[in-house]
TrEMBL record:
Native source organism of the sequence: Saccharopolyspora elongata
Annotated keywords: Oxidoreductase
Name of the protein described by the UniProt record: Aldehyde dehydrogenase family protein
Aldehyde dehydrogenase domain ranges (all copies): 18-466
Gene3D superfamilies from the UniProt entry: Aldehyde Dehydrogenase, Chain A, domain 1 (3.40.605.10), Aldehyde Dehydrogenase, Chain A, domain 2 (3.40.309.10)
Record InterPro entries: Ald_DH/histidinol_DH, Ald_DH_C, Ald_DH_N, Aldehyde_DH_dom, ALDH-related_metabolic_enz
Family: Belongs to the aldehyde dehydrogenase family.
Listed GO MF terms: lactaldehyde dehydrogenase (NAD+) activity
Amino acid sequence: MADIALKPECPVGDGMSTVCNPYTGDVVGSVNTVDASAIDSIVARARKGRRSAQAMSRASRAAVLEGAARLLEQRAEFFALLIVNEAGKTITQARKETARAVNTLVLSAAEARRNSGEVVPFDAFPGSENRTGWFTREPLGIIAAITPFNDPLNLVAHKLGPAIAGGNSVILKPSELTPLSAFHLVEMLIEAGLPEEVVTVVNGNAELGAAIVTAREVRMVSFTGGFATGEAIARSAGLKKLAMDLGGNAAVVVMEDADLGTAVESCVSGAFWAAGQNCIGTQRILIAREVYEDFRDAFVARTKQLRVGDPTDERTEVGPMITAAAARTARAKVDTAIANGATLLCGNQPDGSLYAPTVLEGVPADCSIWQEEAFAPVVCLQPFDSFDDALQHANEVDFSLHAGIFTGSLDRALSAAQLLEASGVMINDSSDYRLDAMPFGGFKHGSMGREGVRFAYEEMTQPKVVCINQKDGVR
């Protein structure tokens, strides 16, 4: 992979950071870095980009996004291999992420044309019979977007697509571990006709991120990442809009009348996709006691069959974690749970950045691996005696995103949809399902705001009302 050079108008730092393959350790590429001292030039460029973005018609914004989608589709294999090399996803998973990013850009183009506002029925209120008008959706201005390593292409598309559709400029700070996909996506948007200054993509450390977040001209921060960082952003951002996806640890419930074969297969996929580095991954599975042993035995057997290793091999199902340090952290959390009484059913074997898919049972409720998002290929199994018992255990954590339930009962499914404290309830599916058009975000302490193209577009725009008082109107 070639080094990434910033455009001449971009703030240029005096250092380079290397991007390494999580599996091989080989250098994939290098990216110019900037530090917090560059914030004034970063904001100045974004200010210029704001004027350029707002001068674009809806048709031209849509054309750029559609053009970028076509280019991405044409270069899908390049991007898939790039994701494998910088993020460690398997080639199968990387191809799926690329295809989703194409759809994200297409949906964004449609939003640029569709979501323009509405007529306001002023005359529906006595005393306003002579008034008519509407509201439009106007851009916020400059948006700061901070993205994580686990979906280095599609999560960037989820922030850039709606922002561009709404006429905003963006300061984009991708993960320092996986910046290459973001830089290439921005270059492709420019190739499709986006003025260069509309997106300012910068690579740097936490101090740079803090400077961007606190910049007064930034009107919104869209952040995907951990709770501690999200809380720090909320404390320091000042008077601006915040949209955050901070992950989750909602449960999947398996009822006694579930199709166990479907439940096992779905939950294994949901647990170990992307080596468990997935905010909607299946981490806690609650199983009716009547079928607990059958589910447990089948789940462990299927987990042991998973092929772990080289992410470029199409037969591989579980690739590396993002770093060897992440794998060691996962093992430490599991070891702590075992020391406190949990039983290891399989896994817990690190090998560099690889970490064998791990299944536990009997995890104490106060262990971090039960209470918090592991962001690793680790699953906790627990039986329950009643539906109310399952709901109590499912809802006892502070971080929630998607939950799931497997059942043959429509009444039970609808009750779960109402009572599970989650932003999405997947029925007869694991928690790990997302359509890029759906509203997406956490519950409880897990988020602020929503992504999903339409919903992100609305977060990134603001209504402006126009009201006409027709003095000579019909009375």
